[in-house]
Amino acid sequence: MEAPSRGIPESIKCQLRQEAGFGCCICGNPVFQYHHITDWALTKSHDLLHMMVLCPNHHHEATVRALVEQEQRRRKERPSNIVNGYVDGLLKITEPGVAVQVGTNYLVGPGFKFIVDGAPLLALDRDSDGRLQLSLDLYDAADSLLLLIHNNEWITGDPMPWDVEFSHRRFVLRRKSGEVTLSIDARQAPVLLHGQLWRKGQLFEMNDDELRFNGVNPDVGFSEIGFVNSSFSADTTSGVFQLIPEPRFREACLVSWPDRAERLERCFAVIRELEQKTV
Ligand SMILES: [Zn+2]
């Protein structure tokens, strides 16, 4: 049985991510796990030389030895993303901060979160080198936990019910039945986000038109708004929904402007002002 990933020192994880090009060594999937090539139960060590980055599906194949050790080591030496020139992984963006489009809304800031009852449901950040960092606590409509992804690491959850599509600057998590749970399209700026996330029996939906929280007092929908340095927090007991500032800056701002391109420019202008105030 594999050791819990939390037992792996962060320095080892960091080196493994870098040598793998921030994705599965075999397929390049930007959401991955850390695999012990030499069975951890035998060695009880987290040795860089005997570990590699794999997506959940290839991790399963390696664990049951459908992928033999020799092949695992060959892939560790020649990771997919490195071979294909994506040394920073598939989710690297060049724009500063994180600018996201949800329906007709823009979210601009250092990152953002959807928080339900004090716990993040979805978070999208970028690291200091511009790689998008996805965290997702995924529940079904009956509030059963399906999977956890923290900073692109698939922490827990059966990968079998899911289809994961990915390419350069694109990641889609889809149920085998076809329904898209989360789509991140960073091929253009702002990053386009779609999805349907459940928590506490409430639906948090990012569709073509709006950002909608279904079930909060009784429901809240946003369209044609710019959110700057804002995260969204819902309390399912009180029905209160609020915007809270990301901690890097003290303020969260709303930008209302009819023309979308100008609205986006104004969002960037506000974030630049917040940056100057913080210096
Ligand atoms: Zn893979």
Q: How would you sum up this structure, described in words?
A:
- The protein contains 6 helices and 20 strands.
- The protein is of the alpha+beta class and about 280 residues long.
- It folds into 2 domains: about 5-85, no CATH class; about 100-279, no CATH class.
- The protein starts with 9 loop residues before the first helix and ends with a helix.
- The protein binds zinc ion.
Write the layout of secondary structure elements.
Elements: H1 10-20, E1 33-36, H2 40-43, E2 51-54, H3 56-63, H4 69-77, H5 80-83, E3 98-102, E4 105-109, E5 111-116, E6 119-126, E7 132-139, E8 145-150, E9 153-156, E10 162-167, E11 170-175, E12 180-185, E13 191-199, E14 202-206, E15 211-214, E16 219-222, E17 226-228, E18 230-234, E19 241-245, E20 253-255, H6 260-278
Parallel strand pairs: 3-13, 4-17, 5-18
Antiparallel strand pairs: 1-2, 3-4, 5-6, 6-7, 7-8, 8-9, 10-11, 11-12, 12-13, 13-14, 14-15, 15-16, 17-20, 18-19
The structure holds zinc ion.
The site of zinc ion (ZN) has 8 residues, from helix 3.
How many alpha or pi helices?
6
Which secondary-structure class do the elements indicate? alpha+beta
Compute the number of strand runs. Answer: 20
> How large a portion of the residues is in β-strands, by DSSP E?
35-45%
Low-confidence stretches: none
What is the rounded Rg? 20 Å
Number of domains: 2
Order of helices and strands: HEHEHHHEEEEEEEEEEEEEEEEEEH
Mean pLDDT: 91
Coarse morphology: globular
Helical fraction: 10-25%
Straight-line N-to-C gap:
49 Å
How would you characterize the largest beta sheet?
A: 11 strands, mixed
**Which molecules are bound in this entry?**
zinc ion
